[in-house]
Design a protein that fits this description.
Blueprint lengths: L3 E4 L9 H9 L6 E6 L11 H8 L6 E6 L7 H7 L3 E5 L6 H10 L3 E6 L17 E5 L14 H15 L4 E5 L7 H6 L4 E4 L1 H4 L4 H9 L2
Parallel strand pairs: 1-8, 2-3, 3-4, 4-5, 5-6, 6-7, 7-8
The protein binds D-xylitol-5-phosphate and zinc ion.
């Protein structure tokens, strides 16, 4: 299987959002990665359901929504309604993770769990077969443009090993500090989905950069 590329709109020009969305529509990108932050679980605040619902009117590719919010269960129905196709919740925010995952699926979305850099892969042992995707955070969540944490490779190895041991088929997504330089190493390590914010939107030619990530 060839891999997926999901540009993070956090680094897009919010004053020209329609133009940015069309740019992604017309690129080799597979999904839109949308980062929702609440100023509680993470220090930053971004956007929520109303903005996502508006974006959906122009977007022609699936929405990969990454919730960095406390108590995400409260909003799962709302994100489904706003147009999320894949919903990631942070492991650290979900005391009843099994229930949360079922709730996401019951609302017709793909269920994904995100792990902070310090959260070990082993916590997924009893939930992995139920997941459609695991999002491995390779920076501390909250901001775009941070540098990649190298320990991520160790976690990827453990995750891929756990997947094969449990015969689980969850996609592996990596998010944070992904560049044209480390993309091929990440893919070689078994990553299925590359998220990239600043690498795409701060480049001179975002469409070309997306193609390069896609052809890495
Ligand atoms: C960080 C977000 C990321 C962020 C990635 O908390 O989850 O999706 O936008 O940005 P870059 O690719 O610039 O590290
Ligand atoms: Zn993200």
């Amino acid at each position: 299987m060839s891999h997926f590329v999901a540009p993070s709109m956090l680094s897009a020009d919010f004053t020209n959002l329609e133009k940015e969305i069309i740019r992604i529509n017309n690129s080799d990108a597979d999904w839109f990665h949308l980062d929702v932050m609440d100023g509680m679980f993470v220090p930053n605040i971004t956007f929520g359901m109303p903005v996502i619902a508006q974006m959906k009117k122009h977007a022609q590719k699936p929405f990969d929504v990454h919730l960095m919010i406390e108590n995400p269960d409260r909003y799962i129905a709302d994100f489904a309604k706003a147009g999320a196709n894949i919903l990631s919740v942070q492991y650290e925010t979900c005391p009843h993770l099994h229930r949360t995952v079922q709730l996401i699926k019951n609302h017709g979305m793909k269920a994904s769990v995100a792990l902070n850099p310090h959260t070990p892969v082993s916590v997924l042992e009893d939930i992995l077969p139920d997941l459609d995707m695991v999002l491995v955070m390779s920076v501390n969540p909250g901001f775009g443009g941070q540098s990649f944490i190298e320990n991520t490779y160790k976690k990827l190895k453990q995750l891929i090993e756990m997947k094969s041991r449990l015969n689980a088929d969850a996609l592996v997504e990596v998010d944070g500090g992904v560049t044209l330089e480390n993309a091929s190493d990440l893919l070689a390590a078994g990553v299925d989905v590359l998220v990239a914010g600043s690498t795409v939107f701060k480049s001179d030619n975002p469409k070309q950069t997306i193609s390069e990530l896609k052809n890495s």
